[in-house]
Every structure is written in C-alpha cells, then in structure tokens.
C-alpha cells in the first residue's frame, strides 16, 4: 500500500470534514440559521450565568455550585468568541456582531479584548507550533519548568510579566503594553477585584481589617467577594482548564505542517478539564483543518472525523510531548 504524503493526508482530512458538514446541514435544516443559533446560545449561556448569580445571592445555592455552573456557562461564551473571531455570526451586521463580541468579553473578564485577540488568533493559525505563536505561548505552551507553566496557566497577568523579556527577544513585534492595554477596561477591572480581595484577606490575617475598616471599604469588599463567587473564580476555573488543555495539545517546535500542529486529547484524564472548556481537547484539532465552522458543528461531526484523523497520521494523547514541553518528535 502506498504511503500518503503529509499534504495528501491533510487534504483527505479536510475533505472528510467538509463532506460531513454538508451531510449534517442537509439532514438538519436548522443549521442554516447560524446567526440565530449563535445568538440563542449566547443568550442562554448569559441567562444561566446571571441566573446562578441570583440564586447564590438569594442563598438558594451554595458558592461551590454557583462557581461550577457559572464556569460552564462562561466556557460556552469562549466557544462563541472563538466563532466570532472567525466571523461565524452576523458578519455583515457590525452592530450585532460587535454586541456579541462585547457580551462574551464581559462574561469572561480575565481575557483580553476579543477584537485584539482576533489578530492574535489568526496569527496563531499561521504560526502554530513556532516561537512566533504568541497566543499559545501566553498560556504555557513550550514552557519546561512545571511550576512556571502552572503559574502561567492559572494567572495570565503574572505569566505575561514573567515572560515579557523572553517574548521581546523571540517574538516579532511583541509589546508588553500592547497586550496589557488590550485588556482595558474589562480585564483591568477583573484583576483589580481579584488582587484587592487577595490583598485584603492577606492583610486581615495580621491586622484585623474587618473590625477596624470604614463601612464603605467593607461594603466594597462585600461586592467584590460576591463577584469573586459569581464571575472571578468561575473564570479562573474555566480559563485554567482551557489553558491546561490547549497548552497540552498544541505542539511547540519541530512542526512542519498542519498534521503536526496539534494532537487530540481523548484520555479520560482530561475529562474534568473538558467539562469547563466545552470538550476543547477532543474537537479543536478539527478547527485547525477547517477554521470556519461554528463550535457546535465541530461537536456534531467529531465522532466520525476523529476516526478519519486517526487513519491519516494525526496523533492522539501524545503524553510524551506534554512531558517534553510540547515538542513534536517524529
């Protein structure tokens, strides 16, 4: 049997994805209403996020349940942002498109502006697996030190501060202030709330602030602590899960073609993380082959397409790569 070249394997995978998409669209006419579906999913996830916050405020659900449900709702908004970056919804209606972009940013305040991230993400598709791929390197891809990698995965701001010197040397056009300012004002407010609460409680361990602080300060901290439960901590859970999954499945170094950019994570070890990033590790590789698809369609066709990918040299659960700082080794 003749062995296929990398180009032939890639073409076979792309063809299979497009054929399955066409089949799904033919069988399910509802898929033709892409704008309506995207907006409906956004409103549903937004209402869930607000709803669990209200339930927590009324003491109907405990903090841990609010955090879990809010993190799941926020993970859906991430998928929608990804689709919006590729202009899958309201591409010819700027007002609705930008309103959706703003909404998914507010639901995920620990991310940079989706308008800036569009540039970064499209650049990721061109440079995936190389040192120029800023998007993946910002979330830990290619870092050998386990402690530093974990820190970057959990706290994007600390990761940016720690890696600025290295990125300035290695990534063309990198600017700390461009990335930092891309978070204003939403991400800036997120970190202000997060670090205010951390500092307040650290100081309170040694100095009884709760007993000696002005009422206004205590009222502000009460609001901040509420936001921690309904928005801040859920997004730490969501983004940490996503960052861990995406930085585990993307290769860094030794990449020569699309087959070598990612591997597929189907291991049950990643199941808890997939819960908070909408099955990202199982489906994101499909996106590398055909970028212009809504996320729910990738979920629908993944069962068949993963079998095709396995037949055409896409790797699955490459734990050696994770141990070796994401290096692709033939």
Automatic annotation (TrEMBL):
Transmembrane segments: 30-50, 146-164, 176-203, 215-237
Keyword tags: Membrane, Transmembrane, Transmembrane helix
Alphabetical list of InterPro entries matching this protein: FA_desaturase_dom
One GO process term, biological-process aspect: lipid metabolic process
Domain Fatty acid desaturase positions: 61-318
Cleaved signal peptide residues: none
Keyword hit for Transmembrane helix: yes
Protein name as annotated: Fatty acid desaturase
Organism: Pseudoalteromonas espejiana
């Amino acid at each position: 049997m003749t062995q296929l070249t990398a180009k032939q394997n890639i073409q076979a995978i792309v063809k299979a994805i497009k054929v399955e998409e066409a089949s799904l669209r033919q069988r399910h006419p509802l898929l033709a209403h892409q704008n309506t579906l995207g907006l409906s999913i956004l409103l549903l996830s937004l209402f869930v996020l607000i709803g669990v916050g209200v339930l927590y405020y009324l003491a109907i659900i405990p903090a841990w349940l609010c955090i879990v449900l809010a993190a799941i709702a926020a993970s859906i908004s991430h998928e929608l942002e990804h689709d919006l970056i590729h202009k899958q919804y309201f591409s010819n209606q700027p007002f609705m498109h930008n309103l959706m972009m703003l909404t998914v940013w507010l639901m995920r305040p620990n991310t940079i502006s989706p308008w800036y991230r569009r540039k970064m993400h499209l650049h990721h598709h061109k440079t995936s697996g190389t040192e120029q791929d800023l998007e993946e390197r910002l979330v830990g891809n290619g870092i050998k030190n386990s402690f530093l990698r974990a820190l970057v995965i959990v706290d994007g701001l600390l990761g940016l501060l720690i890696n600025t010197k290295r990125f300035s040397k290695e990534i063309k056009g990198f600017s700390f202030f461009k990335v930092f300012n891309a978070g204003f004002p939403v991400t800036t407010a997120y970190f202000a709330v997060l670090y205010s609460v951390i500092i307040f409680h650290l100081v309170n361990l040694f100095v009884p602030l709760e007993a000696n602080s002005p009422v206004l300060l205590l009222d502000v901290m009460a609001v901040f602590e509420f936001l921690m439960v309904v928005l801040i901590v859920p997004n730490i859970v969501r983004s940490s899960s996503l960052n861990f999954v995406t930085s585990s499945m993307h290769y860094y170094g030794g990449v020569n073609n699309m087959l070598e950019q990612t591997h597929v994570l189907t291991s049950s070890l990643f199941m808890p993380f997939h819960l908070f990033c909408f099955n990202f590790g199982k489906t994101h590789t499909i996106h590398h082959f055909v970028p212009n698809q809504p996320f729910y369609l990738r979920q629908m066709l993944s069962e068949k397409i993963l079998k095709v990918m396995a037949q055409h040299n896409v790797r699955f659960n490459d734990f050696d790569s994770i141990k070796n700082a994401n290096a692709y080794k033939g």
